[in-house]
Each structure stands twice: as structure tokens, then as C-alpha cells.
Amino acid sequence: MKLTLVERPLVPPSASPYRLLDEQGQEVAWANTFLDAQRIRQLSLRSLRAYAYDLLHFARWFQDHPGLCPRSASPPCSTTCVTNSTNSPNPPRKP
Fold first, then answer.
1. Taking all residues of the chain, what is their mean pLDDT, rounded to a whole number?
2. pLDDT at 89
3. Is residue 51 within 8 Å of 34, Cβ to Cβ?
């Protein structure tokens, strides 16, 4: 599945203008919910953009590692996901 990040400037004030989309153009709910929560916290647009690219990189990495962490990931499993992501030989993609 191909993931993309788009900017939608005409969104409600409570929504992040940066949205993660899948290959069908559908929003990636968990990522966009997080971004919307950060918008409600009144983070700057630059911070939202940085978070959006971090989520895009994580989501792409996570797709390449199926079964690593089940949906009901326990804290040790979550730590393993973050550690593996940090130690990944693939550097983060630049915007």
C-alpha cells in the first residue's frame, strides 16, 4: 500500500491541514486522529508538518514489518517497534 501526505488548507480549525492518505485516497484514520489532536493543542503548522512526516515514515516502516506488533500491542512490543524503527538502516525520507 502506498501512503502519501497531502496538505489541505481548507479544513475546519480543529483539523490538521496535513493528512495521510492510502493508495485509494482514503485517510489513514489513526494518523490523522493524532494530527488533529495536535492541532487542538494549538501546535504550530510547522510542528504539525513535522509530526505528519514522522507518522508517514513510521507508517511506511510499519507496513514493511507486518506482524511485528499486533493491534493490541503491549508496552514491551511498542518499545520494540520504536527501537527497531530508530535502528532501521533506512534513513528517514526527507520532505
1. 81
2. 60
3. yes
